[in-house]
Fold carbonic anhydrase.
Amino acid sequence: MRSTSMATRKTVTASSSAVLLAMITGCADTAAPGASPTDSSAQTAQGEAPAQWSYEGATGPQHWGELEDEFTTCGTGAAQSPINVPGDPVLSSEPIELDYTASDFQARDTGHTVELESTSPQNITVDGTEYTFKQMHYHAPSEHTLDGVNYAAEFHFVHQSDDGDLAVIGVLAAEGEDNPAWSLVIEAVPAAQDEDSAEVTGLALSSLLPESLDHYEYDGSLTTPPCSENVRWLLLQSPIELGTTQISELRSAHSDNNRPTQPLNDREVAQVDQ
């Protein structure tokens, strides 16, 4: 990875009025759901050797558990993600409390997706535990499915507690009308590919979420190697809508970067109405 001093950055700026209009009033590789508790994708910079796993062929999802000793859980784990959320989850009551403020973000291409990291603390609280935002990244098409329905894309807002536990808010995206609230993020995707990094300024994470925070909750894993388990998944029930061009921008950078759904086994999926 190139040093910060040599990196070229491109900045995408939000006007205060645009952010206010997009704000929501009702509010899956540190590791990632890939390689760290953030996107779980290996931290591969442009020009460097690619990570040892991929989404196809001999290094694809069906072989992840065979590639490295630390990836074994990908093949043997009993609580893996993503899953197909069944049509009749049980009711629960553990709302998501947001503590998101307008912030600047840095976008970078990991080689498997584009992720955004905040320059100031952003937090959520679930069931009395506070989690700090680490990064947001995307998969296209979606990794999770709802009663067998697959979506055009899925965004993972990855958070980590002081104890190292992970909580991931999953946001599904359906193809429809252009979504102005997401324009800064979408613009940062090609910018992060063209440059070493791209900056997004004045963005509130809450503006990216649907109005309702009703969600499905279950215990799962990172969706990329090393597929570590004990990840608290908070998959929002209501998808956002993105325009055809916006979806195309995502897929032009990274497409088919989604792990297939995994067996639910004896896990319980809870439906949380806020």
